[in-house]
Design a protein that fits this description.
Strand order of the largest sheet: 4-2-1-5-8-9
Shape: globular
CATH architecture: 3-Layer(aba) Sandwich
Helix content: 25-40%
Distance between the termini: 13 Å
CATH class: Alpha Beta
Structural class: alpha/beta
Number of helices: 8
Order of helices and strands: HEHEEHEHEEHEHEHEH
Strand content: 15-25%
Length: about 240
């Protein structure tokens, strides 16, 4: 699954560079993206010097040295592995609103060619937990993380206990994610099976944030068999298996 998604991602980056002279991408983090990023950074002939990368989300109050820091993650899993042209990281520090403003201003300079995202166990998209705001137009927003989201971070081993997980974060907004010309959704693991089912089958509504992806004209969802295990066979067939 990760190799197939990486092959697609690399092709999309190459096409954007050929079309525009550069590719603007959004990159997700977390345990679900590790194999995908490993495959993408190993892909041949990706014109990384012409790539401009944007950070999807980051905790508030977490130093970059912490193992769960997404800035640290992106450096270790992507930026330090390939000669990427420009990387815009959310330097949250003590002023998350300023981080939203600065990175959001850069993001709005031109369209995003392709966004790589995941889906949370509560069907969150980035750190937009349910009920997500489908209407806010600000590129980045400060959000409060719900307990299900915070428990997921503990379950994945990023934090020792629930009390260690920050309660707030900066996240790219739903509206901004949907502005990407193309979206690749990479979702492995049985832990995500119910969220995947709801994303593909439930009513499109803020209580299932990732369901909004069904309104986008160019989305590809990559699932492994455990993640897809609860999806109705008829729905699987409709979306290509």
């Amino acid at each position: 699954m990760s190799e197939a998604a990486a092959h697609h991602a690399a092709a999309s980056i190459r096409a954007a560079v050929q079309r525009n002279g550069k590719a603007r991408i959004v990159v997700a983090t977390g345990a679900s993206q590790l194999e995908f990023l490993a495959a993408l950074t190993a892909a041949p002939d990706v014109p990384w010097p012409h790539v401009e990368m944007f950070h999807l989300d980051e905790y508030v109050g977490l130093p970059v040295t912490h193992p769960a820091s997404f800035r640290r993650y992106l450096r270790e899993q992507l930026i330090d592995k390939v000669p990427i042209g420009t990387a815009h990281l959310l330097d949250v520090g003590d002023d998350p609103a300023e981080a939203c403003r600065v990175t959001g201003q850069a993001l709005l300079e031109s369209p995003v060619d392709v966004a790589f995202v995941g889906i949370g166990e509560n069907a969150h998209l980035a750190f937009n937990d349910p009920p997500a705001d489908f209407n806010i137009t600000t590129p980045y927003i400060v959000v409060t993380l719900d307990e299900a989201c915070r428990r997921q971070q503990v379950g994945e081993g990023w934090f020792a206990g629930l009390g260690d997980v920050p309660e707030t974060a900066v996240s790219m907004s739903i509206t901004q994610i949907l502005k990407a010309r193309e979206i690749l959704v990479i979702v492995p693991d049985a832990r995500k099976a119910e969220a995947v089912r709801a994303t593909l089958e439930a009513e499109i509504a803020p209580v299932v944030p990732a369901s909004i992806l069904r309104t986008h004209a160019n989305v590809t969802v990559y699932l492994d068999e455990p993640a897809a295990s609860l999806v109705d066979p008829a729905v699987r067939q409709r979306y290509g298996g």
